[in-house]
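Shipment paperwork, digital attachment
Item: protein structure file
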Amino acid sequence: MSSSTATARPEAEVNLANYDAEQARLMEERCIVIDEHDRRIGAESKKTCHLMTNIDGGLLHRAFSVFLFDPQGRLLLQQRADEKITFPAYWTNTCCSHPLNKEDELVEENQLGVKRAARRKLEHELGIPFEQVPLDAIKYITRIHYKAASNDIWGEHEIDYVLILQATVDLNINVNEVQSTRYVTREELQTMIEEADAGKIKLTPWFKLITNDLLFKWWDHLEQLDRVAEPECIHRY
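Attachment content:
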């Protein structure tokens, strides 16, 4: 599969003027298009990568999910802003986004490009200063490959790099991206999962997959993440 032949891309059929202006602008960013083995094969706009028509045709892009814990071992969560085009108002892990098709975020050695993108988005969404999240403190754990629809128009089809760090950070949230944050213990997160199962709150699909299958194992080894890391693995869902 190549980015040019994976599927037709009827972008003109979706008018971004109907959405928040800043979120529509961000849809112009260029995501990294990959094959199912996470090999880079091209680039497409964020809009192109997130249209369900293209996703159903096989278009796949690279992403990351950050799980930031404080020194007490609590996990920082965010609730996505209502302005978000995909999964608005859903609760999710600390930060979820995409490395972009630009030189510094294309570097694959030691996952450096993904880590740079993560630090960029931690600052953009949550106002966390770069110096509070040094690159060498961001630990790459594994990857997950999943597909999920947000609605009939938009969705996700990603190979998602899972990144974990433990740090004390200052927050200054960008309200166009994030409407709320909270730190949770394991028990509090389990309560949120039960609330989501009961339809009381919404959790993003990637966060649910990671939480149900992998997160609590990592949580037990925050001081020894190398013991649970699976750097060569791509978990398929």
